Amino acid sequence: MEPQTGNTKPDGRCRADITPGREVAIVLKKDQRTNKLTNGIVKHILTKSPTHPHGIKVRLESGEVGRVKVILSLLR
Fold first, then answer.
1. Residue 2 — pLDDT band, cuts 50, 70, 90?
2. What is the pLDDT of residues 38-51, one digit of tens each?
3. Closest C-alpha among 19, 15, 59, 16 to residue 40
4. 41: helix, coil or strand?
5. pTM: predicted TM-score of the whole model, two decimal places
6. Residue 51: C-alpha distances to residues 10, 55, 63 (Å)
């Protein structure tokens, strides 16, 4: 997968689009079947590779771990 460019909206599959302090919506492991989203602020990025087809894995400030599906704030 190529990095996001142009007018495409970042969707959580590219590590460069995600930074600590950014607000995101993730899918927790337990919610993968229902695709229920959990909102929070990124504390740590856990995925080492530059991209991941299911979303970059992060730990939120709340301690919850999941894969980013939506980046909610682009300002941080």
1. very low
2. 999 999 999 999 99
3. 59
4. strand
5. 0.84
6. 12, 8, 22
Sign of CA dihedral 50, 13, 46, 22: positive
> CA 67, CA 76: separation in Å to the nearest integer?
19
What structural domains and CATH numbers belong to the chain? 15-71 (2.30.30)
The single-letter code of the amino acid at 22 is: R
**Which residues have a Cβ under 8 Å from the Cβ of 22 and sit 6 or more positions away?**
41, 42, 71, 72, 73, 74, 76
Is the separation of the CB atoms in 19 and 63 below 8 Å?
Answer: no
The model's pLDDT over 46-66, given as tens digits with 9 standing for 90+, comes to 999 999 999 999 999 999 999
Q: What six digits make up the tokens of 5?
A: 């460019």
